[in-house]
Specification:
two-stranded antiparallel sheet; mainly alpha; about 425 residues
């Protein structure tokens, strides 16, 4: 495993640095930071009394996050302009490593030096996944939000702090609110209440400090989905985006709500069964992917939940080599493959490849295709497990139809422990 991850990590770093000139404006990994500077400008505006939502911010963009987010971003505003991109990328890489380590913890591994070394390699390997590469390029916050959520779900079910991470993440960006529903589906009432209370506290706290901006956001801006982008935008990697891509027109709200509700309900049911079977990492990973899928607009960098999925696949491959096929497939279809339109214009990610290609209808929805594959695979296993349980009382199946934690034992040098 070490050799495989080492090769992929080196390959990933080389691909990130060589497929596009690192300093190419608008595409090079070292020439980005647009979203980071929007965060920084948002913090600057609220600390200097400028309106946040009624005027454009840096680069002529519109600020779309919550008022609380600007308070959370104030430390970014204090970092000098010339250093902020490098500091934030280092923080994002550290957060990515933290996410990988938390994933191993949820799988029942102890934090040994060997595991940390493997996690560093896996972190490097994941940098070429398009959602991660884009997060690093734009200076996005999605990896840090994922870290907060994983911190919650890696804690003991009875922990009083379980739910704090989800509440804070939702206070900055609303998408993590989906995990409150996950807590409810798992019947973890205290965690759901804690997450809800922390989220409410972010609203009240921001309203006390920023009453004008808070009133503008929660009574007007919050309902203006067009501030993000049109449904048909190729980067809209959500169910709503899929319908828009296929039809070429904006998705009717009623249709999106219907489809999203069905998928969310299915995702929650499967998550509850996976969690009951001890498959805690796969459960939270499926939840993260579902949240991105049912969102009205999901930029590709919202799909950083491919990272926990990659950890899970590597874990399974450690004892069943056939799982390397799935890990390799994820790497290929979610990779940050570059397409050079000319010497100065480059697009990153398969969903932005030329519209004239025969496979465009698939490529333009590639992240949702991955999600559908994961959701479908888990669903098939669950249905098989239910049939097995009903047909045989002498050898009951696990609730998920997947091997429970003690059944699939990772290699001894990882020093795994029970995932209870």
């Amino acid at each position: 495993m070490t050799a495989v991850l080492g090769v992929v990590a080196v390959l990933s770093v080389l691909l990130v640095l060589t497929t596009v000139d690192p300093r190419l404006d608008g595409a090079g990994i070292l020439a980005g930071g647009a979203d980071l500077h929007v965060y920084r400008d948002g913090a600057f505006r609220v600390t200097h009394g400028y309106p946040l939502y009624t005027e454009t911010v840096l680069f002529g963009l519109l600020y779309t996050y919550t008022p609380f987010s600007t308070l959370a971003f104030i430390p970014i505003e204090l970092i000098p302009w010339g250093a902020v991109n490098h500091v934030w990328m280092a923080l994002n890489l550290a957060a990515l490593l933290g996410c990988v380590l938390l994933c191993w913890k949820m799988l029942g591994y102890r934090a040994t030096p060997r595991l940390v070394a493997l996690s560093v390699l896996l972190t490097g390997a994941c940098t070429f996944l398009e959602p991660v590469r884009t997060t690093l390029f734009y200076g996005q916050i999605n990896v840090i939000l994922m870290l907060l959520v994983l911190w919650d779900f890696s804690r003991d079910d009875r922990s009083r702090l379980r739910g704090v991470g989800v509440g804070l993440a939702a206070g900055i960006k609303l998408t993590p609110l989906y995990f409150v529903a996950v807590f409810l589906a798992l019947r973890q009432w205290r965690a759901a209440a804690t997450a809800g209370a922390v989220f409410a506290a972010t609203i009240v706290g921001a309203w006390l400090v920023l009453p004008v901006d808070s009133r503008q956001y929660w009574t007007s801006t919050f309902f203006q989905s067009t501030r993000i982008a049109d449904d048909t935008h190729p980067s809209n990697q959500s169910i709503r985006g899929v319908v828009a891509h296929i039809t070429g027109t904006p998705t009717p709200v009623w249709l999106w709500i219907l489809l999203a509700a069905v998928v969310a309900a299915l995702g929650l049911w499967l998550t509850a069964r996976l969690s009951a079977a001890g498959e805690h990492l796969l459960a939270v990973t499926l939840s993260g992917l579902t949240a991105a899928a049912v969102s009205p607009f999901s930029w590709s960098h919202h799909w950083v939940w491919f990272v926990p999925l990659a950890v899970y696949l590597v874990h399974r491959a450690s004892t069943q080599p056939r799982w390397w096929i799935a890990a390799g497939a994820l790497y290929v279809v979610a990779g940050a493959w570059a397409y050079h339109w000319d010497d100065t214009n480059v697009v990153i990610g398969l969903f932005l490849y030329p519209p004239a290609w025969p496979v465009t209808k698939i490529l333009v929805n590639i992240h949702v295709v991955v999600f559908a594959s994961v959701l479908g695979s888990v669903l098939v296993r669950e249905l098989r497990a239910i049939r097995t349980t009903r047909s045989s009382s002498s050898v009951p199946a696990t609730p998920s139809g997947l091997p429970s934690a003690p059944t699939t034992v990772p290699p001894a040098d990882y020093r795994p422990v029970s995932a209870s």
